[in-house]
Amino acid sequence: MSAPAATPSDLEIAQSATLRPIQDIAAGVGLPLDALELYGRYKAKIDVDRLPRAGRLGQVVLVSGVSPTPAGEGKSTLTVGLADSLARAGKRTMVALREPSLGPILGMKGGATGGGRSQVLPMEDINLHFTGDFHAITSANNALCALIDNHIFQGNELGIDPRRISFRRVMDMNDRALREIVVGLGGPAQGVPRQDGFDITVASEVMAVFCLASSAADLTERLARITVGYTYGRKPVTVADLGAQGVMAMLLKDAIKPNLVQTLAGTPALVHGGPFANIAHGCNSVLATTTARRLAEVVVTEAGFGADLGAEKFVDIKARYADVAPSAVVLVATVRALKMHGGVPKDRLREPDAAAVARGTANLARHVATVRKLGLEPIVAVNQFTADTPAELDAILDWCRGAGLRAAVADVWGRGGGGDGGDELAREVLAALESPGRCRQLYPLEATVEEKILTIVREVYGGADVEFSERACRQLAQIRENGWDRLPVCMAKTQYSFTDDASRLGAPEGFTVHVRELWPRTGAGFIVAVTGALMTMPGLPKEPAALRMGLDGQGRAVGLF
After folding, report:
1. Of 3-7, 191-195, 302-306, 361-365, where does mean pLDDT reach its minimum?
2. Pick the catalytic residue: 91, 98, 194, 406?
3. 126, 149, 430, 484: which has the highest count of C-beta atoms within 10 A?
4. Is 413 a catalytic residue?
5. Where are the domains of the chain?
6. CA distance 76 to 269
7. Is 117 a catalytic residue?
């Protein structure tokens, strides 16, 4: 008897696919050729100023999920597979996704192009540099840093206090050694010594501004409003004070145009922008989502991690600033995630345990409640993995039926890419779109920063109280003094738990969330509330995925998932 064939990797599936010319993909949604700027045969940027006049805007389907395991629950895979199935059902559909960051690609989590038979292509290009957007964002960010230090060196006309510079350098890499550094050493000719540090590019305010800007003009205006630090008199200093918004916008002039690619099944996909969801607001660019709405009947997009982070921020930040409110929300649940929340250790998640899955539905229930508080009725998508048993899948479906929820098992990893793995889910989504919900924010902008945070902690996380550090209390006073307290809040919190402690799984109640710092992001237009031990520059694991990557004899990538 011959041995069973090995399951091909995501990369092998992607490399064996036959892609259509990107002009053909564009023509399928009515994109004129003069609106395309080609990056080879299979990638293009879209000049949104050359789009045809919009008629009826497409409906937005937001994909969110339960609190994930460290390996992720396949939200991007599910997003792509659902879009392919909606296209199979005859709907003019587009996908809108974030761009992957090199940090997690070379570290532990992997890329962000989906997997198996539900991927966006060309997968290795998108995961490795793509059209250079992240490099442009990094350059714009670090150009500003150079201008700040040069301004101080050249006489410091603005009176910037080097001890109170809040804007940091960035790179698109996990490099813990750069979290805290000292610059300007080496004598008077080398600048003014001060403490500094690096964040990962996807956590930067420039990335947030990039993703929330509605046009090139809005991009410039938002960049100008970024607060870079404070004077010796503790007055805020902005990019406009330095006169740096023009050069930053110039460095982003091509990056700001959405990127058009395709799924394995040929569904058009816009992959653009990529803020982290546990640190920033976790959504692809406003320009990509609004462009897709102009071209398609249904736009399937995702917000990072669970609904406590992704869906809440999508509604309270992105949809507050742009006309992208979702008409339906899909909550991705997996057997392995619910088993983990039901008390099964990470190294035993492949062992069948339907009782643990049933216990873990407490985590799913809280995410369902969050979506309902946002004015929408979720559809639960059970993303099927090969190790799942029928009893485990039934445990989730039985709970959903008892909760009065639409639900479907989706095998888009194995039977997507034009197959029928997401068709049942697509039918449930289309039925939900027939009577769409009316999205609403959790809090008014008139509420204080403290009230906004407490509302999120109680209404979304299930907590009881918020404790502010002494530093955060001082920052609250500064925020009020500068008139920034009417901005929405962006919670920076672990994705693995409703609490600020990553080890507390399931659905804990009555806990206190500890706010360590509050960062005004005056260009992006929100206040970041940093909780627990969250870092804005991740580190690499003991065995980075990068050590398994390389090139084969034909110069093609290997080891990339």
Report:
1. 3-7
2. 98
3. 126
4. yes
5. 59-127+259-434, 133-249, 449-531
6. 12
7. no
